[in-house]
Amino acid sequence: MTEYDPLADLYDLEYTHDYDLPFWLALAERETGPVVEWGAGTGRIAIPLAREGHDVTAVEVSGEMVARGCEKCSAVEWTVGDMREVKLGRRYGLAVCAFNSFLCLLGVEDALAFLSNAREHLEPGGLLGIEVSAFSPEELTDPPGGPTLRHDFTRELPDGRLDRFSVSGYDAASQIMQMRLFYELYDASGKLESRRAHDLEIRIVGHAELELMLRLSGFVVESVYGGFEGEPFESGCDHLIVLARNPPTD
Ligand SMILES: C[S@@+](CC[C@H](N)C(=O)[O-])C[C@H]1O[C@@H](n2cnc3c(N)ncnc32)[C@H](O)[C@@H]1O
Q1: Inter-residue long-range contacts of 25-28, CB under 8 Å, 24+ positions, other chains counted
Q2: Could you give the domains of the chain?
Q3: Using an 8 Å Cβ cutoff, are 147 and 167 in contact?
Q4: Which neighbouring-strand residues pair with 154?
């Protein structure tokens, strides 16, 4: 079982945002050729890209997430696979690795294996876009007395509501953030239907490390943004977006 299998039924209730879609859609319009999304989840980005007429392959390690994606949209070519090593047998004009899928790679070797595989799947001149959260120093520091339980959000659902709470801790030596997530589902009358806990780990990556890993993997870094409107990346930004090109052969 992968980390995200037990979260698959909640994923679309949990992540309802779409502020990043225009950015990825504009890139798919601008670049030529088919699109691959690495770590595609249930298709939050891959499905709208396919619905705009793009030829989209979605790679996702969780079979449960892929099963849900397939139910929603068969226009996407779904593949259950590990982005560090899966071989798709074709090359793409654009690759997307968004919304912290890159942070699921818990070591430098994992990240480099993915970048090498991603490059092998790009046409010469093809573009890779990676987007990760940019964490503030406060988010990476435990409050005095240690990590505390936070209420992350409440989602109103047609037949009830979903609440999420979390406790997280960051280890600066390994750059690993450990999160314990607590989900509570309530029915329309407000009665608690289910409660569950889930552990997730991500490895926090900063701008310079990401750029260096891309360069080491043979990419040419083209743009670095701090937001989906193309804002410059600077202190206080919530997002780090890096666009890197597989050099064209001459
Ligand atoms: C935070 S979700 C993001 C999903 C999607 N990109 C989105 O924007 O909604 C991260 C996803 O990456 C997947 N993932 C983690 N490690 C992976 C790997 N090695 N290969 C493929 N997918 C992976 C997880 O299973 C999860 O579905």
Answers
A1: 25/49, 25/52, 27/94, 27/96, 27/127, 27/129, 27/243, 28/52, 28/54, 28/94
A2: 5-135+205-245 (3.40.50.150), 137-203 (2.20.25)
A3: yes
A4: 163
Tell me the C-alpha distance between 153 and 97, whole Å. 25
- Start-to-end Cα distance in the chain: 44
Q: Could you read off the pLDDT of 220-231 as tens digits, one per residue?
A: 999 999 999 999
CB of 40 within 6 A of ligand 1: the answer is yes
User: Does residue 57 have its Cβ closer than 6 Å to ligand 1?
Assistant: no
* pTM for this entry: 0.97
Please indicate whether residue 201, judged by its CB atom, sits closer than 6 Å to ligand 1: no
Task: Supply φ then ψ for residue 210, to 5 degrees.
Answer: -65, -45
Longest dimension (CA), the chain: 66
- 7-26 pLDDT, tens per residue? 999 999 999 999 999 999 99
How many angstroms separate the Cα of 108 from the Cα of each of 47, 95, 117, 184, 221? 30, 20, 14, 35, 18
